[in-house]
Design a protein that fits this description.
CATH class of the largest domain: Mainly Beta
Structural class: mainly beta
CATH topology of the largest domain: Methylamine Dehydrogenase, Chain H
CATH architecture of the largest domain: 7 Propeller
CATH superfamily of the largest domain: YVTN repeat-like/Quinoprotein amine dehydrogenase
Strand order of the largest sheet: 1-28-27-26
Strand content: 35-45%
Largest sheet: 4 strands, antiparallel
Number of strands: 28
Number of domains: 2
Number of helices: 4
Length: 392
């Protein structure tokens, strides 16, 4: 079978039709005749399921068994089945992404290709709400709002003491303060002072949302679990058992995971913050990201990225090279994982589906890239060394 490589699960109905065609003795239940036949395909052995086979051919799912034959009655091997299925999702991801709709099938190759927005002193956290970027800083004590479509600085929200991690949830923007506070912004209102919604927490670094509660990873060795409500302050509980120095935190749809930088472990938590599993990763793990299947953990001192299957906690790979130099934060855009290299003035990219390296790109000397996120089209990177936000 002459197959193009694939990436993961996709159009299930099409796959079932294709697999049934390739099985011995498949029975035709449609014909190629009709008032609206599909465009011609190069296979002279196809007499049924023409529209489905045409779609598979024109979308790049299969090239057939030869330039002129499809091989509808041949048995499908498990290898061919994997190729069919994974190639289907690869096509679906590329054609269905926001990047495809805006014709942005490209990646900057150097720092000169990055569009920069001056935001604040030492920007750290950045998150997208789908339309705008929200950027925090521990030194500037305000949060900048940047329009994603053109990178224009729109406004600033003040009084965030020691702001670090940023979370977009429930129509609000939340900021973790290393002062022990959790702050809230309502994007519908004019800019002004932030609202303090919880106090007496830990030294906040990262934020995650599980659909009902906000989780804050604290540098002083604890996790704060905050329950939003109609009245302020929000109620919270802080758990410290088993933690040393936490930075990044995420939710995978089932469990909370947090990176403990001090003991080089990624820790899986239950709904009460108790540790269910501790997975060794590289030294000084910082801010991981979840790609829908796997967790990517950058480790700054080890210069590695550990990829872990979220459903099992199994380490799939420990990635090195590809420009890694002080890797700090990972971000996912639906197809690629980007990691900022704080010490290397660059970012490194991988294909999330097969973990293949896509190369590294310089962000410019002295830029010290730190935070990262995706708005579904571009990656956005905070440059701690130059006080700017870069669109990648």
């Amino acid at each position: 079978m002459k197959m193009l490589r694939a990436v993961s699960l996709g159009a299930g109905v099409l796959i079932l039709i294709l697999l049934s065609l390739r099985m011995q003795g498949a029975h035709a239940d449609t014909t190629c005749a009709g008032a609206n036949p599909p465009p011609p395909i190069p296979f002279n052995d196809v007499t049924s399921f023409c529209r489905e086979i045409a779609q598979a051919f024109f979308t790049g799912l299969t090239n057939g068994t030869s330039p002129t034959t499809y091989g509808a009655t041949l048995t499908t091997t498990r290898g061919e089945m994997a190729a069919f299925i994974t190639r289907t999702q690869d096509s679906a991801l590329k054609r269905g992404s926001r990047r495809a709709a805006l014709n942005q099938f490209w990646t900057p190759k150097s720092a000169s290709a990055l569009a920069l927005t001056a935001v604040m002193l030492n920007p750290i956290g950045v998150q997208s709400d789908g339309a705008d970027l929200w950027v925090s800083s521990t030194n500037a004590n305000f949060v900048a709002r940047v329009r994603a479509s053109d990178g224009k600085l729109l406004d600033a929200w003040t009084d965030t003491v020691g702001g670090k991690g940023v979370l977009v949830a429930m129509g609000y923007v939340f900021i973790a303060g290393n002062s022990g506070n959790l702050y809230r912004i309502d994007p519908r209102l004019p800019s002004g002072p932030v609202v303090t919604v919880a106090t007496s927490l830990g030294k906040g670094e990262g934020l995650a949302f599980d659909g009902s509660r906000i989780w804050m990873a604290n540098l002083d060795g604890s996790v704060s679990i905050i329950t939003p409500s109609a009245t302020l302050p929000y109620q919270s509980v802080t758990v410290s058992t088993g933690f040393v120095s936490l930075l990044g935190i995420l939710y995978d749809g089932s469990n909370i995971w947090t990176a403990d930088a001090q003991d080089a472990l990624l820790k899986k938590l239950d709904s009460n913050g108790a540790i269910l599993q501790s997975i060794p990763v590289g030294a000084n793990p910082l801010f991981p990201v979840f790609d829908g299947t796997n967790i990517w953990v950058p480790s700054r001192t080890a210069n590695t990225v550990t990829v872990i299957r979220a459903s099992t906690g199994v380490v799939l790979a420990t990635l090195s090279g590809n420009g890694l130099n002080g890797p700090t934060m990972a971000a996912f855009d639906g197809q690629r994982v980007l990691v900022t290299n704080f010490l290397g003035d660059s970012v490194s990219l991988w294909n999330a589906a097969d973990l293949s390296a896509l190369g590294s790109v310089s962000t410019g000397a002295g830029t010290a890239p730190l935070g990262a996120c995706s708005d579904g089209i571009n990656f956005w990177i905070t440059l701690d060394g130059t006080d700017k936000l870069a669109r990648f």
